[in-house]
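Regression test case RT-17, inverse folding.

Input:
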């Protein structure tokens, strides 16, 4: 194939990037790739402890897709073996390990979802147990000899835990070395990761040299904040937009992000052309409401289609501007007709909230209705007289049907 020019490639590659280390090496690699008509091996390791992907994960996946679009080979490494260690990056304590079966199952789910972003062409998915699982203890000793404890303690999270006299298990030191061996095994030209992965990626460069390989270029991407605008996007914090969410959920959640984050979302999470980004920035300042709707529709279109985006917008307006309910509401059998149940118990048992404490908070804030009537007392008993529509927050609906 004919690769785009160096400038065309660098313009796309540099979009939204935090760091390229070193950029001169990437330029050299691309120039050689064009001259020899040989694609670069671009590596992304996926963490099999988190099988449910959201827009935060999509940032590096989208960068990998851009390399694919430029004609390079995407290599998605499922860390089934390293998942048994657990990546300690940014963690204040040792992470629990997973079994090889758990990491494989999660890896399959990760890949299925990643296909919403990645092209099925010029991609390879492999498990790092293929090479790490065959290493002998002598091989591990040899690998460990190539990096020092003082070098490991340069990593901020290790350094902090060491100074605070918090435990650091020896196996955690092996994680960046194992990840580096992935780069050795596939002869990675480029490795992608979030800014929190910078240390691990740099170890990959060092270990490649130790094994006589050309050092990879590392490319780090920003960490996308969650819809709260404060914390890193995370399912556990319920501030995420899942790439497998329904059109209605993606649209509604997007409209809840702070205005100041909109431009970052356009750059990192959409296909808006670089040439249009200055106009987007101006539109955010002048017409934030309309621009946020555009962002929401673009995200729904990416993970569903244009028709779904239009329908999601219309449904949002019907529910939140006209105060209607959705056309389709999930139903579940619950309780016995004529029985009474405390509202806190009801909300937790139908799993619209994770705990009674969260249910109490939402009720006190006026965020719970039953058949369109607001519940204000946490001690209220709900009479199960027939099918009932429960609404929690702005977007969660459930119809319960007593027997």
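Golden output:
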């Amino acid at each position: 194939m004919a690769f785009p020019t160096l400038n065309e490639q660098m313009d796309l590659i540099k979009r939204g990037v935090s760091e390229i280390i070193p950029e001169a090496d990437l330029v050299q690699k691309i120039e050689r790739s064009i001259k020899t008509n040989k694609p670069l091996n671009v590596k992304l390791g996926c963490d099999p402890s988190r099988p449910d992907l959201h827009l935060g994960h999509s940032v590096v996946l989208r960068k990998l897709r851009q390399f694919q679009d430029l004609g390079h080979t995407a290599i998605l490494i499922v860390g089934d073996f390293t998942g048994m260690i657990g990546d300690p990056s940014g963690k204040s304590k040792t992470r629990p390990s997973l079994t090889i079966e758990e990491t494989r199952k999660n890896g399959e789910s990760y890949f299925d979802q990643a296909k919403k972003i990645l092209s099925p062409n010029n991609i390879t998915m492999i498990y790092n147990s293929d090479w790490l699982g065959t290493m002998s203890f002598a091989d591990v000793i040899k690998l460990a000899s190539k990096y020092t404890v003082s070098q490991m303690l340069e990593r901020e999270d290790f350094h902090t835990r060491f100074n605070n006299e918090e435990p650091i298990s020896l196996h955690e030191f092996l994680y960046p070395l194992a990840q580096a061996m992935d780069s050795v095994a596939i002869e990675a030209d480029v490795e992608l990761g979030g800014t929190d992965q910078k240390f691990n990626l740099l170890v990959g460069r060092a270990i490649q040299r130790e094994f006589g390989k050309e050092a990879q270029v590392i490319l780090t991407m920003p960490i996308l904040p969650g819809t709260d605008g404060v914390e890193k996007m995370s399912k556990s914090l319920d501030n995420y937009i899942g790439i497998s969410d329904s059109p209605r959920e993606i649209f509604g959640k997007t409209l809840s992000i702070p205005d100041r984050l909109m431009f970052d979302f356009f750059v990192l999470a959409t296909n808006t052309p670089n040439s249009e980004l200055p106009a987007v920035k101006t539109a955010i300042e002048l017409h934030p409401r309309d621009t946020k709707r555009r962002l929401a529709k673009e995200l729904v279109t990416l993970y569903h289609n244009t028709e779904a985006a239009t329908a999601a917008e219309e449904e949002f307006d019907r529910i939140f501007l006209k105060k209607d309910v959705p056309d389709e509401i999930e139903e579940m059998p619950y309780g016995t007709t004529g029985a009474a149940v405390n509202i806190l118990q009801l909300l937790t048992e139908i799993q619209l909230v994770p705990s009674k404490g969260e249910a109490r908070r939402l009720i006190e804030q006026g965020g719970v209705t039953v058949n369109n009537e607001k519940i204000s007392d946490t001690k209220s008993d709900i009479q199960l007289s027939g099918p009932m529509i429960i609404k929690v927050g702005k977007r969660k609906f459930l119809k319960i049907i007593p027997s």
